Amino acid sequence: MDYKEYEGSTTSPKKIDVTRKTIAVYAKSINEAELVFFEIEEARRRGYAEIPAPTCMPMIFWQYLDVPWMNHGESFIHKNQTFKYFEPLIAGQTYTCSITLKSVESKRSFTFLENELVGKNDRGDVVFTSTSTLIGGMKK
Amino acid sequence: VKNLFNLQVGEALESLTIPNVSADRVKRYAEVSNDFNPIHLDEKVAKKAGFDQQIVHGMLTMSYASRLLSPYLNADLLVHPMIVTFRAPLLVGEGVEINGEVKEKSSDQIKVEISGMSGNGNQVLRGEIVIRNRKQH
Questions:
Q1: Which of A70, A134, B45, B120 is the most exposed place for a label (fewest CB within 10 A)?
Q2: Left if phi > 0, otherwise alpha if psi is -120 to 50, otherwise beta: which for B86?
């Protein structure tokens, strides 16, 4: 598989609805107990207009995007991950998300893919970026 | 709500311990993320890949690490950025302890160094979380 041919490619954008329910389901899956992720009163007490999402939640948005360069059956291991927020990700909003294959590097038998997921609000402002460096060709 | 900016450089945040990241927890995360890579769920596949048993999704472990800051979050604060390197696999059934320590602090941001150690003493992740106070900008 020649990932280089995909370098610089971006997926089709996908609108993803973030709701109180999707936040609660995700928060429970990571055993989050802070009420701010479950109760609007607590969210408002902390100054949010709506219930905020836990920091790492955008990673589950991958499932809604068709990422052509990840459709070849090769197994990857997650090496590095970065999240950067420009405003809080909150319930009741629709975010337009896409993933770009920022770089492809080969070192010995390993392939390093740097993917950037970007989420924008309805004004087109970037709300968050999520950068994932994945390694393929790994054998322990 | 705790005030993050009351913490001093060198001060540790309250650590977080997950005594047993069970197969059920991993299955639940697989369902929520739709990441059913068998290396997380199927012992045979994990062993074939060279691991002693199924491995926990790195993103589940990182999500646990993000919880260190949850008691402090408010609408003025932004995670900018949270950076993690996955250093070793966490095996299903192992425990993990997440620790954080304030490394830098200014009037508008604070940097917390984080580390995740497995029950076997392996560092499974390390990184940092920088929190910015938007009110100061």
A1: B120
A2: beta
